[in-house]
Amino acid sequence: MYGDLANKLILEAKRTQQLNHNSNQLPMYHEDLVRKVLREVTQLKNTTDFLKEQQQLPSDSAIQNDKVLKCQYFVTLLCMERNKRCLLAYQKLRSDVLKSLAWGSNDGPLMSATVDTNGLSHMEQEYLKEYSGLITELKGGEWTDIDLSGSLTPPSDVFIDVRVLKDAGEIQTEYGVFNLIKDSQFFVRQSDVERLIQQGYLQKI
Amino acid sequence: MDINIDDILAELDRDTTAVDSTGHTQQGNQSSLSTSDIPANNTTIIDVSPQQDFKQLMVHWRNERCSPELLSYPAPLVERMLSRIQSQMETIENISMGFLESMSQGPSDDNGDKLTSHHNDSKLPLLCMEAELERVKFILRSYIRCRLQKVDKFSLYLRQFDPIQLDDLLSAKEKLYQSRHSEILLKLLNGSVLKFMPEELQAIDDTEGSVNMIEEPDWNKFVFIMVCGPPDKLFSEDPLLSKNEYGKYCYNVTIAELKEDVELTLDSIYVMRYQVVRELIMSGKVQLI
After folding, report:
1. What does the alpha-carbon distance between residue A163 and residue A181 come to, in Å, rounded to a whole number?
2. Domain of A180, in residue numbers
């Protein structure tokens, strides 16, 4: 039936949701499946056009035909609506994940660490870029002092122990210079190293 | 026979503060001073102290996080907090600069007076100030992020409002965010899905289809509430308050669907539909927890 392809897409969306819930990653964009659903929509559209034409034609058994045509037209419309809903749900879910990625990791103070963009459709890549731009714009102005994309776990300790996970040499942050040698340990103020923890260089102990 | 003189005493207490502050008599001893401070504070409600503002912010933060709808934006409060954060950051910087100076001066200077004064200032107050600042910043950040999430969620719903209502509901920045984000999101959805649809199905905010595409807040969401009473604590002046059979103050609300009346007693906690207590929350008589 007509809605079945779209159903596959929704199953895919559900899997994405679970994946994202567990490990914060985004699988490939299902381009061929989406294209198939869109092709189905085009077919349905042709059907409705055909039905409309039929309705215009004068025929002998007009009253009986009219009833059938109305029913056919309505069901095709419903199928298209169903497909639209599934496509939008899939796309919206993906854009939500992209949004959380943009908030989470895309802009440290140095704007490094870009997200892996291979699996995205080019529309999505554009969206991600523009959304990151929007976030940067928001963080300026009156909200500069409260770093909006900063951590959302309440600060419970002023100083923490961190261990270096990745060798990164000397890294310049806003507050000073750290020499990040692998497996060395620091006792530093939490607000200084929050960014480095987000980017995965440090591990909080 | 007991003559209740509490009200006379209260009046006397208020008098002594007035006299004390002018400093004409020395009657007011320590104990009367400390007791009279409390009613004096209570009567000045429109108190714009940092402590009061922080308490207000906490209330706003909790309400925003728990309520299903986007609440109105307390612009003056947030503005005050932001300016305070800025000045505090400057203060901290100045103090730590002072530390650096005294460190470099310390050993070379042999003046006894100066040395002892420098030795006295420990790092502890500075540390506390920084930790405090981090906390306030966290709350503001969490508050704004929570609001932005709701703005995203109700983006289509918010578009229906007229500009005046929006001014009250959103800050300038949030409005900017809303319009810009709905623009780029629409571009994405248009480009990947809607473009290929027949014309009658291209709308993103279609309310006539089999499913309504505009998501409204869930007005009947159950929320935990704590009944606080009127913010100024003048219980007798609140027209909504009434006494129940046990002599306790309570608000009477009606759940429309069940046609059931509920008494919300002061200082107690309920699980209640949001729609029912919405008015009380707006006026600050009930808080979400």
Report:
1. 10
2. 159-204
